[in-house]
Amino acid sequence: MAGAFTVEPELALEEPFPVPPPGPRERSPSPRPSRPRLRPLSRAARVRSSPVLPPSPALFPWLARGFAPGEATVWCGPRIAVEPLLELLYAGSALARGRISLLEGANRFHPYRIGELGRSLGVDAEETLRRVRLARAFTAHQMVALVDGWAREVRRHLPTLLVAHDLPTLFWDGETPDDERDALLRHAARTLARLLQEAGLPLLLTLGPEGAASFSGLVREGPPWADYVTFVRGPTTLRLHALRHDAHLTLVARSPGQLGLEAFGGRSPAEEVIGWDVPPRRTARRSRSG
Question: Going by DSSP bridges, is the β-strand pair 100-104/237-242 parallel, antiparallel, or unpaired?
Answer without folding.
Answer: unpaired
